Write the structure tokens for this entry.
Amino acid sequence: MITITPAASARLSALISHEPDADRLGIRLVVTTTGCGSYAYSIAITEPSPDESTMTISGIMLCYKEADRPFLEGSIVDLNPHTGRLQVFRPHPPASPCPLPQGVHKEE
């Protein structure tokens, strides 16, 4: 479903281990819609809710709702080596139904 790189797994493990209920915690990728039908992702450290499924990826529990699975497929959680921050990206996002107008470029 998703990939958690070794560097991201180590960072997430360290963050989770400092919590008193670490044995019950995992991550949830929170998907939000941005302009023109594209998606942005954030990471929450949390316990799974009763209506969520879980799976372990690279030693990290992933909490997700089955309905969100198509939005998560192919996502990669990595650690930015320059900033030390976790990041989520999707190298092959689904095609957006609305192209940007001529002359407009997305900022990276």
Remarks:
- Residues 3-89 form a domain with the Hypothetical Protein Aq_1857; Chain: A; fold (CATH 2.60.300.12).
